[in-house]
Automatic annotation (TrEMBL), chain A:
<dbReference type="InterPro" id="IPR050601">
    <property type="entry name" value="CPA3_antiporter_subunitC"/>
</dbReference>
<comment type="similarity">
    <text>Belongs to the CPA3 antiporters (TC 2.A.63) subunit C family.</text>
</comment>
<dbReference type="GO" id="GO:0005886">
    <property type="term" value="C:plasma membrane"/>
</dbReference>
<protein>
    <submittedName>
        <fullName>Na+/H+ antiporter subunit C</fullName>
    </submittedName>
</protein>
<feature type="transmembrane region" description="Helical">
    <location>
        <begin position="6"/>
        <end position="21"/>
    </location>
</feature>
<dbReference type="Pfam" id="PF00420">
    <property type="entry name" value="Oxidored_q2"/>
</dbReference>
<feature type="transmembrane region" description="Helical">
    <location>
        <begin position="28"/>
        <end position="51"/>
    </location>
</feature>
<keyword id="KW-0812">Transmembrane</keyword>
<dbReference type="InterPro" id="IPR039428">
    <property type="entry name" value="NUOK/Mnh_C1-like"/>
</dbReference>
From TrEMBL, chain B:
<feature type="domain" description="NADH-Ubiquinone oxidoreductase (complex I) chain 5 N-terminal">
    <location>
        <begin position="66"/>
        <end position="109"/>
    </location>
</feature>
<feature type="transmembrane region" description="Helical">
    <location>
        <begin position="447"/>
        <end position="469"/>
    </location>
</feature>
<feature type="transmembrane region" description="Helical">
    <location>
        <begin position="893"/>
        <end position="919"/>
    </location>
</feature>
<feature type="transmembrane region" description="Helical">
    <location>
        <begin position="105"/>
        <end position="123"/>
    </location>
</feature>
<feature type="transmembrane region" description="Helical">
    <location>
        <begin position="242"/>
        <end position="264"/>
    </location>
</feature>
<keyword id="KW-0812">Transmembrane</keyword>
<feature type="transmembrane region" description="Helical">
    <location>
        <begin position="820"/>
        <end position="841"/>
    </location>
</feature>
<feature type="domain" description="Na+/H+ antiporter MnhB subunit-related protein">
    <location>
        <begin position="791"/>
        <end position="911"/>
    </location>
</feature>
<keyword id="KW-0472">Membrane</keyword>
Length: 111, 930
C-alpha cells in the first residue's frame, strides 16, 4: 500500500513539475494543480497510513488514524482552490491584455 | 517608575509637534522642551541617591523567554550621560528654534530630535543588553532622519545613507557580540554580566565577542578605520551636528566601551585593539582637522580626534585612565557643542563656512569671537580651562605606558590639537577685515549665542574649580565604570617632576610651529595622495550593488521557466546533499497489505498521469484527465480513513474544474509545440528527479515510526471532552486550531475579492476589454445553450442540494462534514443554476450579495471568537452544552457551530464570487444576451 501511494505521489510530482516548467500559462496551472494533489497526499501520508480507522470517535473503538494531518490537508485543499482560482484569472487577464499566454517575459517587455 | 517616565518623556515630547501642528515655533519649542526639562528634573532628583552609591532601577518583563525585559538602571555612568543628553538637548532645542529658517519644516525636525533624544537616553539607561540594542538601532535610524533632514541637498542624503550604512553594519556586528556575551554570562541583564569578568575573559569566545562589540562601538564613535562617515554627516543642520556629533550619538560607542569596561578591559587584546585604534584615530583626526577648509569639517575631524583620545584612555585599562576618560567626556561635550553652535552662527551670519573666505571676524562678531576663543583654547588644552585638565591627565597616563612611543604619539596628537584649535581662532577671527563676505557678518540674537555661552561658562567654571563642579559626577561615573569610586582628584599643578607638564609644553611648541608653517604644510598636504574613505565606501557599495544586480539578472531575468528551473535544481542539489551526508536505516513500521481495489485506483491514476504528459497540449482533454486524477485522490482519502478529506477533495474538484473550463472558454484551446528537444530532456530530467526524490522521501516517512510521540493522542482524547464533538478533524478545525481556520477563511475571502477586482479591471476600457468584446461565443458545440432537461433537473435538485448542505453542516461536528464541505456543496448547487439557466437568470434571483456573504462569514467567525472575551477567556475559546427541548431529543449547542457557520458562509460566498466573476467576462463577450 505504501509503495502504491509513494509511486503515485512521485509520479504526480514529476508530471506536475514537468508541466510547471512549460512556457505557457495553462500547462503551468495544470502542473500546479497536480503538484497540490501530490503535496496534499504527502502531508496526509506523513501521519502514517491506517485502513478503516477514521478519526470519528466511537465507543469501544480505540484505534484511530492521526487526525492532525487531515485537518491540515483539509484547509490546504480549500486554500489551494482559492489560489488556483487567482492564478487562473491572472493567466486569463494576461492573455486578454497581452494577446499571448507565454509566461516568460520577452525582449522589450517592461520588467 | 520615575525612571520609566524619564525614558518615556522624550518620546512623548516627540508626539507634540504632530499633536499641535498649529502652534508657532516658539510655543512648540517651549512645549516640546518642557518634556526634556521635566526628564532632566526627574533625573536630577535622583542625584543624591546615585551619589550615595544606590542605583534606582525599574523592571518590567517584556519577552522573558528571550531574556528581553524592560529594565532600566541609573548608575553613575548612566547619570552622567543622562545629564549630558538632556542638558545639552535643552540648549540644542533652543538653538534650533532660532537656527532653522522659515522654509525648513520645523515640526518634523523637532520630532526627529526628540526621537533621537529618547533613543540615546534609552541606551544609557538600559540595564538589559537586548533593550540596549533596540535603542542603539533607534539612534541609527533617528540620526539618519536628522542628517538627511535637508532632503534637497545631495550631500545630506549621501551623508545620511553613509552614516546609516556604517553605523547600521556595526550595529549588526554588535548584536552578535552582545548575544555571545550574554550567552557566556548566562544573563542578558547588564548589571549581572558586569559581575562575570572571570568567566567572560576565560571564555574562548571572548575575542570574537570583543571584536564584534568593538565593531559596533568603533563605527558609532567614528574610530579608525570607520571614521570617514562623521565628516560626511556634517551636511546635517548645525544643531544636529552639535547634538549628535559632538555631545551624544558619537559618544554612544564610548559609553558602551565604558559600560562594558569592567568585563572586557584589562586584557592584551583589549589594550591593543582599543588603545591602538584610539591612538591612530586621535592622530589621523587631528592631522586631517588641521588642513580642513570647512569650519564644520575641521570640527568634525577634531571630534574624531577627541573621540580617539577617549577611546585611547579607555583602552589603557587602568583606573586613572578611566577617570580621565570620563572627565574628558564631560569636557569635550561642553567645549565641542559650544564650538559647533558657534560655527553654525558664523555660517548663519557670514553666509559661508569656508575658512579661506573668512577671517577678521573678531571686530564684527565680538560675542561669537569670545565664545570661540574660550572654547578653542579649552580644546587646545590651555590652562586653566577644562580641556587642559583632562588633556594633562591623558598625557600623564600615556607617559606611564610602555612602549614609550605611545607617550610620544600622544604628545604629537596633543600638539596637532593645539595647531588646529589655534588655526580656528587665527584664520577665522584674527587677521585683517575683509570686504568680500557673502553676508555682512554681525553677532546674532541671544537665542543663538546664549546656548553656547552657557556651555562656555561651564568650560571656564569646570576649568577653575574642577572638583567642586564635576568631582562628584566624575567620581560617581568613574566608580560605575571601574567598580570602585572615591579617589578622584583633579588639579592644575602636579609639580615639575610630572612628565605631563613637559609633554604639554612640547605640544604647545609643536602646535605654534605648525600654525606658523601652515602655508608650506598645506602645500605639502595637498601634494600627497590621500586614501579617501568616502571613495572606498562608494566603491564597496557600488560593487555590492552591481554584484547583487548581476545575480538577480542571472536568476530572475524575466523568464519564469528559468527562475523555476534554477529553484528546482537548487532544491534537488540540497536534497541530494542532505541525503548523501546522513546514514540510512531500513524502515521498521510494518506496511499495510495491498488490496485489489487499491491496485485498480493506482492503475487509473498512473494511466491518467501519463496521459496528461502525452496529451497536455490538448487543453480540454488534459483538464479532464486532471479531474480524473483528482477523483482518484479523493477515493484514496476515503480508502485511507479520511472521509472529511474525501468529501472536501470531491467538492473542490468540481468547483476547480468548472472554473478552469470557464477560463478555458477564453484561452487558446491548444498549446503549440515550440520548445526544442534538449529543453524537454532537461525539464524531463529535473521533473523525474524531483518526483523520485519526493516519492522516496514519503516512502521513507511512511515506513518508519514517528521519532517523537505524535500530538494526535491529545486531540483524540480531548475532542469530545473539551471540544464537544466526535469528528476529531472538525473539532481541530473549529476549536483546537480555530485561529488557523479563521486566518484561512480570511485568505479565502480575500482571494475571491482579488478575483473580483481583477475581473473588474479586465472589464474596464483597455486592450483586454477590446479583445473580449471581439470574441464570439462558440456556436455549434452544443445544440442548445440552456437545454430544457438540464434546466429542469438542476432547478429540481436545488432544494435537495440545499438540504444536503444543511445536513452536512449540522452533522459536521460529530460525523464527516462541516462548514467547509457544506459551503462547497451549497456553492455547487448554485453554480449548477448558473450553468443551466444562465448568469442573468440566476443573478437576477439572487437576494444576497456574494461580497456580503464573505464579509458576514468572516465577521461571524471573528465575533464568535471575540465572544469568549466576555467570559474572560482567550480569543476563540469554545463552549458547548446540551439542551433538551420537548418533544425533541437532547441535543448539543456549541459555539464552535457558530464559528463553523462563519466558515460555511465565507466558503459559499468565495466560491460563488470567483465563478460568477468569470461569468461576467462571458456576458461582456456576448454570451449573456441569449
Amino acid at each position: 500500500m505504501e509503495l502504491y501511494l509513494a509511486t503515485a505521489i512521485g509520479l504526480l510530482t514529476a508530471v506536475g513539475t514537468y508541466l510547471l516548467l512549460r512556457g505557457r500559462s495553462f500547462p503551468v496551472i495544470l502542473g500546479l494543480t497536480l503538484i497540490s494533489y501530490a503535496v496534499n497526499l504527502f502531508i496526509f501520508a506523513s501521519g502514517g497510513l491506517r485502513l478503516s480507522a477514521p478519526p470519528i470517535l466511537q465507543s469501544g473503538v480505540t484505534t484511530y488514524t492521526d487526525p492532525v494531518p487531515q485537518a491540515l490537508v483539509l484547509t490546504a485543499i480549500v486554500i489551494s482552490f482559492a489560489m488556483t482560482a487567482v492564478i487562473t484569472i491572472l493567466a486569463l487577464g494576461a492573455w486578454l491584455g497581452a494577446g499571448h499566454d507565454r509566461v516568460d517575459m520577452s525582449e522589450g517587455d517592461e520588467p | 517608575m520615575t525612571l520609566a517616565l524619564v525614558a518615556a518623556l522624550p518620546f512623548l515630547g516627540a508626539l507634540m509637534p504632530a499633536l499641535f501642528p498649529r502652534l508657532g515655533r516658539g510655543p512648540l519649542t517651549l512645549l516640546t522642551a518642557s518634556f526634556t526639562a521635566l526628564a532632566l528634573i526627574l533625573v536630577a532628583r535622583d542625584i543624591p541617591a546615585v551619589m550615595s552609591g544606590q542605583a534606582p532601577t525599574y523592571a518590567q518583563d517584556w519577552l522573558p523567554a528571550l531574556g528581553l525585559s524592560f529594565t532600566l538602571r541609573l548608575d553613575g555612568l548612566a547619570l552622567l550621560f543622562a545629564l549630558l543628553i538632556l542638558g545639552i538637548g535643552l540648549l540644542i532645542l533652543t538653538y534650533a528654534r532660532f537656527y532653522l529658517c522659515e522654509k525648513d519644516a520645523f515640526a518634523p525636525f523637532l520630532t526627529y530630535l526628540m526621537l533621537f533624544q529618547g533613543a540615546m537616553l534609552g541606551i544609557v539607561l538600559s540595564d538589559n543588553i537586548l533593550l540596549l540594542l533596540i535603542f542603539w538601532e533607534l539612534t541609527s535610524l533617528s540620526s539618519f532622519l536628522l542628517i538627511g533632514f535637508w532632503k534637497h541637498l545631495p550631500e545630506g542624503r549621501q551623508g545620511a545613507r553613509m552614516a546609516l550604512a556604517v553605523t547600521g553594519t556595526g550595529g549588526l556586528a554588535m548584536i552578535a557580540g552582545m548575544l555571545i556575551l550574554s550567552q557566556i554570562a548566562g544573563s542578558s541583564q547588564i548589571s549581572v554580566i558586569l559581575t562575570k569578568t572571570a568567566e567572560i575573559q576565560a571564555s574562548p569566545l571572548y575575542l570574537p565577542a570583543l571584536i564584534l562589540i568593538l565593531l559596533g562601538a568603533f563605527t558609532k564613535s567614528a574610530q579608525f578605520p570607520f571614521h570617514f562617515w562623521l565628516p560626511q554627516a556634517m551636511a546635517a543642520p548645525t544643531p544636529v551636528s552639535a547634538y549628535l556629533h559632538s555631545a551624544t550619538m558619537v559618544k554612544a560607542g564610548i559609553f558602551l566601551m565604558a559600560r562594558l569596561w569592567p568585563v572586557l578591559s584589562g586584557t592584551p587584546e583589549w589594550f591593543w585593539l582599543v588603545a591602538g585604534a584610539g591612538l591612530i584615530t586621535m592622530l589621523i583626526g587631528a592631522k586631517v582637522a588641521f588642513f580642513q577648509h570647512d569650519l564644520k569639517g575641521l570640527l568634525a575631524y577634531s571630534t574624531v580626534s577627541h573621540l580617539g583620545l577617549i577611546t585611547f584612555l579607555l583602552g589603557l585599562g587602568s583606573k586613572a585612565a578611566a577617570i580621565a576618560a570620563v572627565f574628558h567626556i564631560v569636557n569635550h561635550a561642553t567645549f565641542k557643542a559650544a564650538l559647533f553652535m558657534a560655527a553654525g552662527i558664523v555660517d548663519h551670519e557670514a553666509g559661508t563656512r569656508d575658512i579661506r573666505r573668512l577671517g577678521g571676524l573678531r571686530r564684527l562678531m565680538p560675542v561669537t569671537f569670545a565664545l570661540v576663543l574660550i572654547a578653542s583654547l579649552s580644546m587646545a588644552g590651555v590652562p586653566p580651562l577644562n580641556g587642559f585638565l583632562s588633556k594633562e591627565m591623558m598625557l600623564e597616563e600615556a607617559a606611564h605606558v610602555s612602549p614609550w612611543v605611545i607617550g610620544l604619539l600622544a604628545t604629537l596628537g596633543a600638539g596637532l590639537s593645539v595647531a588646529y584649535s589655534l588655526r580656528l581662532i587665527a584664520h577665522v577671527f584674527l587677521g585683517p577685515d575683509r570686504a568680500d563676505y557673502p553676508h555682512p557678518p554681525h553677532d546674532p540674537g541671544p537665542g543663538l549665542w546664549l546656548p553656547p555661552a552657557l556651555l562656555v561658562v561651564l568650560v571656564v567654571l569646570i576649568g577653575l574649580a574642577p572638583m567642586a563642579m564635576t568631582g562628584w559626577i566624575v567620581n560617581a561615573s568613574a566608580g560605575a565604570v571601574t567598580g570602585q569610586g572615591g579617589d578622584v582628584h583633579i588639579s592644575h599643578w602636579h609639580g615639575l617632576h610630572s612628565p605631563a607638564l613637559w609633554m604639554s609644553l612640547a605640544a604647545f611648541g609643536l602646535g605654534l610651529m605648525a600654525l606658523s608653517l601652515f602655508p608650506r604644510l598645506l602645500a605639502l598636504w595637498e601634494g600627497t595622495p590621500k586614501p579617501q574613505g568616502k571613495r572606498i565606501f562608494a566603491h564597496l557599495i557600488g560593487g555590492s550593488a552591481r554584484l547583487s544586480q548581476a545575480i538577480t539578472a542571472l536568476i530572475h531575468n524575466g523568464a519564469q521557466t528559468r527562475a523555476l528551473m534554477i529553484a528546482l535544481a537548487v532544491l534537488l542539489a540540497a536534497g541530494t546533499w542532505a541525503f548523501s551526508t546522513a546514514p540510512h536505516l531500513p524502515g521498521t513500521r510494518p506496511p499495510l497489505p495491498s488490496e485489489g481495489l487499491a491496485l485498480v485506483g493506482w492503475l487509473v491514476l498512473i494511466t491518467a498521469s501519463f496521459a496528461i504528459l502525452r496529451f497536455h497540449r490538448q487543453r480540454l482533454l488534459a483538464l479532464i484527465l486532471t479531474s480524473v486524477v483528482g477523483l482518484i485522490v479523493s477515493a484514496a482519502f476515503a480508502y485511507l480513513s479520511a472521509p472529511d478529506l474525501a468529501l472536501t477533495q470531491l467538492t473542490v474538484e468540481v468547483v476547480t474544474v468548472l472554473l478552469m473550463m470557464l477560463a478555458l472558454n477564453f484561452l487558446p484551446k491548444a498549446t503549440p509545440r515550440e520548445d526544442p528537444i534538449p529543453r524537454h530532456i532537461r525539464d524531463g530530467a529535473i521533473a523525474a528527479l524531483t518526483g523520485l526524490g519526493v516519492g522516496a522521501l514519503i516512502y521513507a516517512l511512511m515506513t518508519r515510526q514517528m521519532a517523537f510521540p505524535s500530538i494526535a493522542e491529545y486531540h483524540l482524547e480531548n475532542a469530545k471532552t473539551l471540544g464537544g464533538g466526535t469528528n476529531v478533524v472538525n473539532v481541530i478545525l473549529v476549536d483546537f486550531r480555530g485561529y488557523d481556520t479563521f486566518g484561512e477563511i480570511t485568505v479565502m475571502g480575500i482571494a475571491a475579492l482579488v478575483i473580483y477586482a481583477l475581473i473588474d479591471q479586465l472589464l474596464s476600457p483597455g486592450p483586454a476589454n477590446d479583445r473580449l468584446q471581439s470574441l464570439r461565443p462558440h456556436e455549434g458545440d452544443a445544440g442548445d445553450r440552456h437545454p430544457l432537461l438540464f434546466v429542469t433537473v438542476t432547478r429540481a435538485l436545488l432544494p435537495l442540494a440545499l438540504l444536503t448542505g444543511v445536513f452536512i453542516f449540522l452533522r459536521g461536528h460529530n460525523m464527516p462534514g462541516g462548514g467547509f464541505i457544506a459551503g462547497l456543496v451549497v456553492g455547487i448547487a448554485f453554480l449548477m443554476q448558473y450553468m443551466a439557466s444562465g448568469f442573468g437568470w440566476t443573478q437576477s434571483r439572487l437576494r444576497i450579495d456574494h461580497h456580503a456573504l464573505i464579509g458576514a462569514g468572516v465577521l461571524i467567525a471573528g465575533l464568535t471568537g471575540a465572544g469568549a472575551w466576555a467570559w474572560g477567556l482567550p480569543f476563540l475559546t469554545s463552549h458547548f452544552g446540551y439542551v433538551t427541548l420537548p418533544p425533541l431529543d437532547k441535543f448539543e449547542l456549541a459555539t464552535a457551530a457558530l464559528f463553523d457557520l462563519g466558515v460555511f458562509l465565507t466558503v459559499l460566498g468565495a466560491v460563488q464570487l470567483a465563478i460568477a466573476s468569470i461569468a461576467r467576462l462571458g456576458i461582456r463577450s456576448g454570451e449573456g444576451r441569449i
